[in-house]
Amino acid sequence: MRHKIMDNNEASSEMISSIDQRSNGLRVPFGRRGNRLYGPSEVIRGKSCDCVCPGCGTALVANKGERKREYFSHWRGAECSGGYESAVHLMAKQVIEDTKQAFCPSFSTRIEKEAYPGHLLSEDVNRESSLLAFDSVKLEQTAEGLRPDIVACLKDGTEIYIEVHVTHAVSDDKRSRFANKNMFEIHLAHLTLEDVQDMERFRHEVLEAAPRDWIACQLHNDEIETARAYLDARVQRYRAEHQARLDEESRKRMEQKHEEAQKLARKHQIAERREQLRQQYHAPLQALRRMVQDDGAAVRNQSLLEGAESSTPAILERLNVTPWPPCLDVPIEGDWILNAHRTIWQAYIYENCIVSKAKNTTLHTNLIKQRIVRQFGLLDWAAALVNLKYRYKQQGKARGQWYGRKGIWFLEDKENAMIPSPYSIVHKFMESLVKEGLLEQAQPGTGLFVIRENNIAALHAARARKDEEHRLAQEAADRKEQAALEAHRAQEQSRLAIARKIREERIQSLIQVITSLKQSGHDSLMRCEHCGDHRPYQDGNCAVCGHPRLWEVHLTESYLSTLNYRLRCVPGIVLDTRSTRQITNEGAELMPHFDCPDAN
């Protein structure tokens, strides 16, 4: 339990000093007559006020003047240092005794309890400052062997002990003895002279506004116990929930360990089974590696080719083609699995599935694959792997397992990839015939093809005719383009000749104009950087071409001697100002340019 209580034993020296200054400025703010205190304004003037100092008991004089503030002073004696403190202290008790009421301090306490290690729960009890009305108020009555400043009793008989702090806070002994009682302290050390002299303000400070705090408080014990009971219930609930979480986490850990153990055991079982099955197919796998990774495929292809040489002439005669068509000798990866050279089985497909069929007939890759396998057969050990891969694919798809896409589950991915697929071999050959123009794929991504042309010789003849027609058309187009190019060149040469003539005429005309201006007495002219026009000084743009850049040039002998070269370097010199005809900049770029000595 923690109470929000101010420690008054730590009063600073500055506060005591300020109290001393106030006591020196106002010797005794209240005088005592009998058992009551009075202010200077409440008694008659002079020693007749019949008041004594609350601190030392010396007779007081009530001083009342028109200009000075009313005050008490000691009669024929030095002012005592304790008079101010005693007067303020006693008057505060008198105010509470007269009114039988006072505001108690606010109350705040927190109850904490550990729900489980590392987690605290708490409940707060908070009450704002409230007015206490007393049935009785007694001063300086002994309680617990000590004398509290005020003993006030509530209507229900509860005693409230009140301490008034002016310069001396509640002692540790008093705090200890009243720890199980209701005691609070009112702090008046901060009051100014004006606060003390203004009785209404002083009463307000004493009863309500001045800071106050509990030394000990038992008024809210019932609420504290209620909060403690609620906290105990919360703690029990939290502990039960925490234990349930711990039990659930423990159960899940046990289940996880059991599952991991089962997975590990299953993994070991699968590894043992994988190794057993791999041993059963050790020989075919070794042969597969030699065929794919070594030179086994090349050796087998050479052997099959040698066996096919005797059958080639008869096939060419039946197909009525010579030499052997490249489209029936298409290398396809993995075709070593067939017991026939690629020229033989590809010619078989062409002869029995295309030549013998009408155009627009639909061909099924799977049916053709079945015919090829029946006709030529597969390499025995490879056929066992192919059938095993197909069986596991079907099984994996039915079970929704990963090996439904790869094939034999106990083989590595690269080993599954090395096993050829007869269907894929035939399908790739059919796709090559699409590029050749014999077939057309009915639907993308399917094994359906449509016959577009069923005769290689006719296809080649038609292709040759098209190539010849294209060649002749290209030659005609080339001749036409050459004629147009020559006509354009002739036209361009004519245009350039005209441009050169106009350019020369323009240059000579400018030279004559400049020479004439020189002879008429002009030593300098304005020159257009674009068209080369020279004329006496002028503002604005060129009068001939409108160009904004005009430069002043001096008609020196050196300048006039190089004028012909300078004018040839001007970009807009081809402008014909004598008519509406204009030679374009493109034509100017085609004309030769000259290096101008001393062009600057």
Q: Could you please describe the fold and organization of this structure?
A:
It is a single chain. The protein is of the alpha+beta class and 600 residues long. Among the domains are: 98 residues, no CATH class; 158 residues, no CATH class; 130 residues, no CATH class. It has 19 helices and 20 strands. The strands form seven sheets. A five-stranded mixed β-sheet has the order 10-11-12-13-14, covered by helices on one side. A hairpin with a 6-residue loop joins strand 16 and strand 17. Helix 11 crosses helix 15. It starts with a strand and ends in a 10-residue tail after the last helix.
Helix fraction bin: 40-55%
Radius of gyration from CA coordinates: 61 Å
Q: How large is the count of helical segments?
A: 19
Tell me the overall shape: flat
The assigned structural class equals: alpha+beta
Overall mean confidence score, pLDDT: 87
Number of strands: 20
Distance between the termini: 102 Å
Order of neighbouring strands in the sheet with most strands: 10-11-12-13-14
Helix/strand layout:
Elements: E1 2-3, H1 13-25, E2 31-33, E3 36-38, E4 60-63, E5 71-74, H2 83-99, E6 101-103, E7 107-116, E8 119-127, E9 131-133, E10 136-139, E11 150-153, E12 159-165, H3 172-177, E13 183-187, H4 193-197, H5 199-209, E14 212-216, H6 221-280, H7 282-293, H8 296-308, H9 312-319, H10 342-355, E15 362-364, H11 365-376, H12 380-399, H13 403-406, H14 413-418, H15 422-436, E16 439-441, E17 448-451, H16 456-519, E18 524-528, E19 534-535, E20 550-554, H17 557-561, H18 563-568, H19 585-590
